[in-house]
Design goal:
single chain; mainly alpha
Length: 257
């Protein structure tokens, strides 16, 4: 029953928006805003074919590799920088400088250095995704309870055991918050990296539709990006519930009390 209730909540607003969209376009012939039926027809014709292999899957593959690389770099560096005060003081000015640079402006530079390759697009994704994970990991490590830290030191829990059983669980909620931000940033940068001098991918295809005035097909690409974002959100929520099961259980107990 709970699952049906959650599903009802999840589908109610999209259904209402579709009804409003359908009602507002009845009898309309606006070239730039297709009706739901026309968009559904364009979506099926455009994306249920060879473009899945030539555009959709390569884009998703680059997104996965870029996000996974950003997570690895961000969590490892975050654990190191957050654990040593002298290292935080040393790296903070450089981190603030590079964090302030918008990743899209790096695209022309990376094109010159790396060429128009998949590696360049992945690096663009990493350049934006790494910051939410890195900064949240640093803050999570810094916020480890001092009493627990002293207790682990007293009992001789050091090295990897301390990281595994104390630091990662304590910093876990903030790390997951950074990962959630990372996913949305990665999707945006995936599209941007494919809009510049590319020959495949969702970003490239949407721009090509726009330039050729294939408006329903262009909107279908935008809808597909939204659906990918929704899928990533559901996957993240499912993963977070299992990784932070102890944390959510503790919150439920506190709320019950």
């Amino acid at each position: 029953m709970t699952i049906l209730k959650s599903l009802g909540y999840a589908l109610t607003l999209p259904a209402l928006l579709l009804i409003i969209w359908w009602a507002s376009t009845l009898g309309e012939t606006n070239f730039f805003f297709p009706t739901p039926a026309l968009l559904a027809e364009a979506f099926t014709a455009t994306w249920f074919g060879e473009r899945i292999l030539s555009d959709v899957l390569p884009s998703i593959g680059r997104l996965i590799v870029g996000v996974a690389s950003a997570l690895t770099i961000g969590i490892v560096l975050g654990l190191l920088i957050g654990s040593f005060r002298w290292l935080r003081d040393l790296t903070e000015p450089a981190l603030e400088f590079f964090r302030a640079i918008p990743p899209p402006v790096l695209v022309p530079v990376l094109m010159l250095v790396m060429g128009i390759t998949d590696s360049m697009k992945i690096v663009v994704i990493i350049s934006g995704c790494v910051w939410p994970v890195l900064l949240n990991t640093i803050e999570g490590v810094r916020a480890v309870d001092g009493v627990l830290s002293d207790s682990s030191r007293t009992y001789g829990i050091q090295g990897w055991a301390r990281v595994k059983y104390l630091v990662l669980p304590s910093a876990g909620p903030q790390i997951m918050a950074g990962i959630r931000q990372c996913l949305s940033v990665g999707l945006i940068l995936m599209v941007i990296s494919e809009m510049f001098a590319s020959s495949s991918g969702l970003g490239f295809t949407i721009v090509q539709f726009q330039r050729s005035f294939a408006i329903p097909e262009m909107w279908s690409g935008i809808v597909l990006l939204g659906l990918i974002g929704v899928a990533l959100s559901f996957i993240f929520q499912w993963t977070e519930r299992r990784v932070l099961r102890w944390y959510h259980g503790l919150r439920e107990v506190e709320n019950a009390v």
